[in-house]
Backbone:
């Protein structure tokens, strides 16, 4: 059984930064891809970033150059460093562990 817990969300002004963390329990962490998704009010959940077990990353075009995903397999932890935040980044951010596990989410609010 996989359990994912996000933390680090909050309220920040435009241009600010936040660092999200995802702590994972279970046996699949070190071998499976992980990532972040987000869901804004009234919108569908969308892909933000992903990282393979070997550290290969991919990002949504909307966050490229501003967000950085990383992981430490020894600590069963993944992070999302978010810089130059914009109001349109406001959403609930969900940690994801392949193939289909999601955390409960953490709220990120960017004020203009």
Residues:
């Amino acid at each position: 059984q996989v359990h994912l817990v996000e933390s680090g969300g909050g309220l920040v002004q435009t241009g600010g930064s936040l660092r999200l963390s995802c702590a994972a329990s279970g046996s699949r962490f070190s071998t499976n891809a992980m990532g972040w998704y987000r869901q804004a009010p009234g919108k569908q959940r969308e892909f933000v970033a992903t990282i393979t077990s070997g550290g290969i990353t991919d990002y949504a075009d909307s966050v490229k150059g501003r967000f950085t995903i990383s992981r430490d397999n020894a600590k069963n932890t993944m992070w999302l460093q978010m810089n130059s935040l914009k109001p349109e980044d406001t959403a609930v951010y969900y940690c994801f562990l392949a193939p289909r596990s999601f955390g409960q989410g953490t709220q990120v609010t960017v004020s203009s």
About this structure: The two ends are 40 Å apart (CA to CA). The chain has a mean pLDDT of 95.
